[in-house]
Amino acid sequence: MSELTPMMRQYLEIKADYPDAILFFRLGDFYEMFLDDAVKASRILDITLTSRGKGGDGNDVPLCGVPYHSAAPYIARLIEAGEKVAICEQVEDPKSVKGIVRREVVKVVTPGLVVESESLSPKENNYLLSLFGDGGSRWGVAYLDISTGDFRVTETDGEDAVWSEVACVDPREILVPASLRDSGRLAGRADLAAGRMISAIDEWVYDRDYVERLIRSHFGVASPDAIGCGGLAEGLQAAAAVLHYLQQTQKGRVDHIRDLRVYRSQEFLVLDESTRRNLELTATLSEGKRRGSLLGLLDRTATAMGGRKLRQWINYPLVSVEKITNRQDAVAELVTAAGVRTAMREVLDGVYDLERLNGRISLASSGAKDLVALRASLEKLPPLFDLLDGVDASLLREIRAEIDPLEDVKELVARGIVTDPPFVLREGGIIADGYHAELDELRAISREGKGFIARLEAQEKGRTGISSLKIRYNKVFGYYIEVTKSNLSSIPEDYIRRQTLANAERFITPELKEYEEKVLGAEERIVELEYGLFQEIRQQVAAQGERIARTADRLATLDVLVALAEVAHERGYCRPVVDEGDVFSVTEGRHPVVEALNVSERFVSNDVLLDNAENQLVIITGPNMAGKSTFMRQVALIALMAQMGSFVPAAEARIGVVDRIFTRVGASDNLARGQSTFMVEMMETAAILRNATPRSLIVLDEIGRGTSTFDGVSIAWAVAEYLHDTERCAAKTLFATHYHELTELAVTRGRIKNCNVAVKEWNDQVIFLRKIVPGGASHSYGIQVARLAGLPHEVIERAKEILQNLEKGEYAEGGVPRIAKGKRGTAAKESPQLSLFEQGADLVRTRLAGLNIAALTPLEALNILDELKRMV
Hints:
By secondary structure, this protein is an alpha/beta fold. Helices cover 43% and strands 18% of the residues. The longest helix is centred in the middle third of the chain and has 33 residues, at 510-542.
């Protein structure tokens, strides 16, 4: 260390405190990076990597750098690449310091703590999430969007629930205790950790005494009970880790985080990770795109904060009938009042992102243009008040009462900041005329400069008689009088020589020197004074951050209500009746997204009736591509939309409040966790059977298809029976299957009904009618669907032949099925090996041997007789 230069020694001392971050080390007009940081940053940023021998031992030191005044896009690219960036500034004036300038890290930028708009998606929160579990089943979850100040905490039971919450929040960065990261437990959820930075927090941070002190200190309360966190032991520990991390990275500048919102899963309709994905709530399954998701359809919000609020409503539908009804009342009034709705959209369209403006102002990272945007947004409030003055819905009246006009903030910014300020804060031109007397005086001096120089030049020409005399200025010598050498004999005695040129001499006079000191001093003072005044104004606005945040939240809620009303009006949605009953009834329901995207084909609506008395479980059969999955997903989406307060795509709907929606749809594996498609299917099914209640809604598609036919039928049958017979989890269920054997459940189970998707056969073709009708399907039309998919004609014809043989139970001598053919289409040779297929007579005998004739009902006997007839 003693061989290093003083500057490199300082760099390495600071870098030692931030080993996991790329250090932006301020040197003059550049942020420099050295050693490994330089190598890594140059590769990510695609900038030149150079070196110089400054290590003190003759070895070259790798280095690269970026201009400090345009560092933001470089930092954004590093963050996008999953890196942290520590910003190290000069905290002393180099002009007043002998030797090396003192430097300190003033902020650490991480993926979860981004506030710059270039790195943020306007309609998505950027969350930092913290997890804490003490080894039991209870987990604390806290998450913060530092750009908006949104800070929430909850507790969950079990790892499945906590990872479901992680999937819902979708954080950019996750904080965990160091022991949890090092234990390897996170490796099992590499799928959710992928693309997210995992940051370890020292174990001592979770000490109960430290946690309570940190919470009390930050929120200024006597006890966590004062902010509604009483009893949330693990939740508080997770939240304290967030606050501790902020102290380490933001150096205490987080005054806009004034509230910690506690929520509990019982307050919302619970959606697990699989359900969110299968229903394509915020992104499509195939491409992860917003377009094609429920969010993409419903988002007609005019503001960025409204878009984020809508995403929250979709992710956290309500279960309180009163709260749902309040939202519905507001949407209903806005649907009816088309003129008011349109006018509100126009006003809201001119409102900037107040939440993120407020965050940047509070963090002292905002520019003058941010303050102007705040003022412009506040100027939109008076016409909005006029529109809200005549509303009847209680939620709209509540919004009107809670929107703060913030007249004092608007007046301060209007009086202090020019209408179109520059981006750079330290070059002047920010503060409005008339705001500060000294500044106005200095500006007058600066503005009069040209006139003074012109008058002085004319005066000196007249006094000396030198017509070519000129007064000029440069940064090196300041103001000077230039006289050609041929006129030197005419200069007065008070001219003081400053510089000699080839053809001229440059002079100053006492009057010119006095003016120079006055003007140049004024310009420097103007820049210094303007920056100080801007900081004062920004601090005064930041002090009103809580009022700004409350107004932003109310405007975001209004924006969502207007957007939902706009979609309901445009798409012809109805207002569902939401109550505490167990009836789930939809008349002429449609899939909201498919209906909107498929404009070339009229969407076929369908009815559904589910309850806990007679229609608890509906078995749905029918061919692939007929619309079973679409129908089931639309039922789930209608339930979710109703409980988030939206109107729904149907003619009529009655929704008994659902506590959870479960879906088991589609085939997927998880190679990262060593799980096959069938294993994933069974694990998801197991989670449903463990957690479902009679108030839940379950969507099951093709249970048991990932294994052998007999195994699959057996599992599907047993699952259906369990859902019907087990009182604890007798949930309303839609059960789609190709196992037609399951339709027999309706004979023995009173709350099971059969439905199928109607099709029409014509000239060996199948026409999908998309209509759900009572009864089971006779067969699956798989070969017809294969033809539509483009399989070769030879394959289709051979498949039809095999199907006929299987259905007739035809076998060759020796027990070999006739579907088996050798090369060139010849029949397979007889084999002494036992056949995997029983002879038809054997199947009949086995079935008869297992019957209890005395216990059969007449209807069951007829069904079995029909089955035996098909087996021979």
